[in-house]
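Obj.: predict assembly geometry.
Materials: sequence records (below).
Method: joint structure prediction, all chains together.
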Amino acid sequence: MIVIRTNHDIPTSYLFAYSEELIKEAEAKGFKVAKIEGKEISEATLRSRIKNRKPRFIFFDGHGSDTSLFDNSGKEFINLDSADVFQETVTYTIACSCLVKLGSVAIDKGCYAFIGYKKPFWIARDHKFESTPLKDRIAKPIIECSNIIVKSLIKGNDVEESIRKSHEKAVDNILKLIYSKEPLAPASLQALVYNDEALSFKGEASAKII
Amino acid sequence: METDADYIKKLVKERLYAMPPDVSFSVGNFGDYTRNQLIEEVDKGTEVGKAAIEMQLIFIRKMPKLINPR
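Observations (raw structure tokens):
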């Protein structure tokens, strides 16, 4: 599998921090994880890694738009013209709105399944934990629900089942947040409900990465 | 006379005001906003403000179904 992670502002630093455990879990399950990070993120690097590794799964977290993924400088590095890069893979992007057009074009160009978000991805945060994202109890329930897709796929579940697990986790976390005494819980709750609504996929529901 | 759009804007702002001020939101590519900055964006009718309104409306519509799916 190939993991592409940006880390250049607060939201990407959160996604970066929370994806560490996904990489460890994947490696523990025997996946060879090729990481593309920082200045290394480019279309050329991605194509080269794909050529060498022939991954079944590509995971991206960072910024995106309905047509593009952005690199560590916030510049577009994958767009509709280069969406063939995802062919013969299951791809998951935790990024804004990518599913809308990029996901559709990726499927047209041979991607088995493209999982992503139809709208902006919201992260609610507590100011105090900007430099220690893993301690942020407001962001955690939100990112947990998006990360469960990766955890499920590496366990051998298919795309549809993985999305179902994310929705179930969202409902669990929503119920916990409703009854939480944490004053910032409503912010977390609203972002979680919004992201859960925006999560979907295109392509084969039965696609798996193992 | 207050229009539906004005009423919704007011509702969203009140809901944001109800949150403690030490919350921040990362709104994808739009950037990071404190509670008060997000309220200002709603007031100005910017793209981020519109996204905040959409988030609140989806929350209001979806919550009953999530906690009582039948």
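Conclusions so far: The beta strands of chain A are 2-5, 34-37, 57-61, 69-70, 76-78, 90-94, 113-117, 122-126, 199-203.
To do: check interface contacts against the pulldown list.
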